[in-house]
Design goal:
heterodimer, A: 5-stranded mixed sheet, 5-stranded mixed sheet, 22 helices, B: alpha+beta, 4-stranded mixed sheet
Chain lengths: 547, 164
């Protein structure tokens, strides 16, 4: 194998590609060749560096210099100055407030307060190369599990690590693993839930685009632990690049004997099928996902029975989120105690967050549990984009709670402020809480599968009423009515969609009571966002059913 | 069930539907992959195509219809050549998707859910595309456009108009 004195990693993740990353890659390769550096400098395509929002981005190793917002016209300078003469181009270097100079020999911590476990390889390796994944220790955990551990020991290790689900529900992963392992049935399956649809979340996309093998390895380990021989990855249909990267990675793993029959001569068989969703948010709910996998409308099932005993085609089924699974190989490799040493007492490991909206540096970051909201928003994400104060954050996306600055010193942890799936939708002072909540409700009214009444009718009614408020309709009675409808939805909806749809509304009403009253009673929008273009009388008719 | 043997669509589309059906085993779990394949090859899923799928998979047409219409990525009418999808989920909404959508509407002269008279563009308002880091975002066919401002819209649309 040739020795390269430098590696240039060009991010070709979804957002960087959009900003011209792919074209840069080709041009850079050509320039390197023209300068006769082809045998010394290797140009590699990689997954997202986590700063795609400042893309196209690239990193030059061994120095670890990051270039952001690179234009085609900058390339000759980078090649000439940096690659040929060894002088990094200062004016193009990325300097996030949290980007210290990276020491090549230390673990990658581009960003001060971040710690990368799940994203450890994203932006470091070429996601298309299984060799690079293996070179950084990939598939060692699978080898260790298959050759040195019994399935029970694997489950025990995950249990001791304290790993909990990262999709939002925070269910202890090992309890699911144990239940599937113990469930009677000859055939069992492992399903990776990659139907990432919660607005504001784009972490799973990054993992799948940047490091698909870590998820494949984790699924095989899970299969071994619970006694399944087949796995399905259900990826949302909009994530074309994730689907492509995954399918390619599975094919290569199969060729290398890391999937298929008799893996590592252990007698364990495992294979994975990629299944593409078709645009339904509700399919992120595990039983709806299973229905969809079976070829039906994605309508959630009644629980119990739970998927761990009666899932896909009635078989015991383990459903885990992408991020949850990606934690598994490091746990097996480094041991449960290493993992449980990170984070807080009840929330172990790291969490991926995706700050977006009115924030200076939107993107994907990973930090240990226990980090405060303030640290994530200001130290890592750079604070407000416009300079206006941050008014509120929707934690976890539209199905999460809205919090104000008085909560910014709370810690992200399941025992304090649960991060949901990790989205942090930031609103500054110029935004209107009623307008944002109305938008969230519109989303749920559209995505409700329509199966159960509390969700189907509740989402629509509440949306209509809150939209009415943005137009200057409604009266004081509605404030209380909406709260009651919301509470009923929380209690009576069949699945999480309906149960969590009113949460943003209810928490916003508690956080900004004056703002809501200003809309409903005074008919004005303090932020000046809502149109307030309607007259009061229109609502009479709609209120009659309530009286 | 009465099945139309011939399709009101072009011979090319008819062949594409048949080819899509041949590339999968005819089981219920493959219904969505088959619909994806038809959508990819012909740009839409017609009633006729659904009848072919129902017959091949030996299932009621109503079930195929029910499943196909449940998922938003399947385009049942599919009259437009290019589909413009503007995201209006909270991260995009906060960063100004309403103004972008308005600019697209003005540029195309249609509202969400409509198709331009020449059949060139269809407009849809969609939920999160997972590109919130570069909000506001729109998708035209498979191409992503991010960090949009209303001023950028005419230029982007013009590019697709020129391509035809």
């Amino acid at each position: 194998m040739a020795f390269y004195r430098a590696h240039v990693l060009v991010c070709c993740g979804n957002t960087c590609s959009m900003r011209g990353g792919a074209a840069l890659l080709q041009q850079l390769a050509r320039l390197v060749e023209e300068k006769g550096l082809k045998d010394e400098v290797r140009v590699v395509e990689t997954g997202c560096l986590g700063i795609s929002e400042h893309g196209p981005a690239m990193v030059v190793y061994p120095e670890g210099v990051i270039y952001a917002r690179v234009k085609a016209a900058d390339l000759p300078e980078i090649v000439e100055e940096h690659l040929l003469k060894g002088r990094p181009v200062q004016r193009l270097m990325y300097r996030g407030p949290q980007a210290p100079k990276m020491e090549p020999e230390t673990k990658v911590t581009y960003f001060g307060k971040q710690q990368k476990i799940v994203l450890r390889n994203c932006g470091i390796i070429d996601p298309r190369s299984i060799e690079e994944y293996i070179a950084v220790g990939g598939y060692q955990a699978l080898g260790k599990a298959l050759t040195e551990m019994t399935p029970m020991q694997v489950v025990e290790e995950v249990k001791k690590s304290g790993l909990r689900g990262r999709g939002g529900a925070a269910f202890p992963a090992a309890l699911k693993w144990e239940a599937v392992a113990d469930a009677p049935g000859r055939e069992k399956v492992v399903v990776c839930n990659a139907d990432e649809g919660e607005p504001g979340n784009f972490k799973d996309r990054l993992i799948m685009e940047g490091d698909p093998h870590s998820v494949i390895e984790a699924m095989a380990i899970a299969g071994y632990a619970v006694g399944a021989r087949h796995g399905y990855v259900y990826i949302r249909g909009e994530y074309r690049q994730s689907v492509e990267n995954f399918e390619r990675a599975i094919a290569v793993a199969r060729e290398m004997g890391l999937l298929g029959s008799n893996i590592f001569d252990s007698g364990f068989d495992f294979d994975i099928t990629v299944y593409k969703g078709a645009g339904a948010y509700v399919c992120g709910e595990e039983t709806a996902l299973i229905e969809s996998l079976e070829g039906h409308r994605g309508e959630p099932r009644l629980k119990p029975p739970f998927p761990v005993t009666h899932g896909l085609w009635g078989m015991p089924t383990l459903v885990n989120n992408v991020e949850t699974l990606a934690c598994v190989p490091p746990i097996i490799s480094n041991g449960a105690y290493w993992f449980s040493g990170i984070g807080t007492e009840f929330s172990k490991g790291t969490k991926i967050f995706s700050p977006c909206g009115d924030v200076l540096l939107p993107g994907v970051i990973e930090a240990p549990f226990g980090i405060t909201v303030r640290e994530v928003l200001f130290d890592i994400a750079g604070g407000s984009r416009s300079g206006a104060d941050i008014k509120a954050v929707l934690v976890g996306g539209p199905s999460g709670v809205m919090i104000g600055p008085e909560s910014f010193d709370r810690k992200f942890a399941f025992e304090d402020l649960s991060p949901g799936a990790g989205a942090l939708i930031v609103m500054d002072e110029t935004r209107c809480a009623v307008d944002v909540v109305a938008n969230c409700l519109k989303f749920f009214a559209h995505e409700s599968c329509g199966q159960c009444v509390p969700c189907r009718e509740g989402c629509k009614r509440v949306r209509d009423i809150v939209y009415g408020w943005t137009r200057g309709e409604g009266d004081e009675l509605e404030l209380d009515m909406v709260r009651r409808v919301g509470i009923n939805m929380r209690l009576a909806s069949r699945c999480g969609l309906g149960q969590f749809a009113p949460v943003a509304l209810l928490s916003a009403m508690e956080l900004f009571p004056e703002e809501f009253r200003a809309h409903v009673v005074d008919k004005r929008c303090p932020a000046g966002v809502c149109p307030m273009d309607s007259v009061v009388s229109v609502k009479e008719e709609q209120l009659s059913w309530q009286r | 069930m009465a099945i139309n043997d011939t399709c009101a669509c072009s011979a090319q589309d008819e062949a594409a539907v048949r080819a899509a059906l041949e590339s999968f085993e005819h089981t219920r779990t493959n219904l969505i992959p088959i619909l994806h394949e038809i959508q990819d090859r012909t740009g839409r899923i017609t009633g006729w195509a659904m009848e072919q799928v129902a017959e091949a998979l030996k299932m009621p047409l109503a079930e195929v219809w029910g499943t196909a219409t449940f998922y938003t990525m399947f385009d049942i009418e599919g009259a437009a050549k290019h589909i413009v999808r503007v995201c209006d989920s909270p991260p995009c909404h906060i960063t100004g998707s309403a103004a972008v959508l308005k600019a697209v509407q003005e540029e195309l002269g249609i509202k969400p859910g409509e198709v331009t008279p020449d059949g060139m563009f269809g407009l849809e308002e969609v939920a999160c595309l997972g590109l919130c880091g570069v909000a506001p975002v729109m998708l035209i066919d498979r191409e992503v456009f991010g960090n949009l401002t209303p001023e950028m819209v005419p230029g982007i649309i013009a590019k697709f108009r020129e391509e035809g």
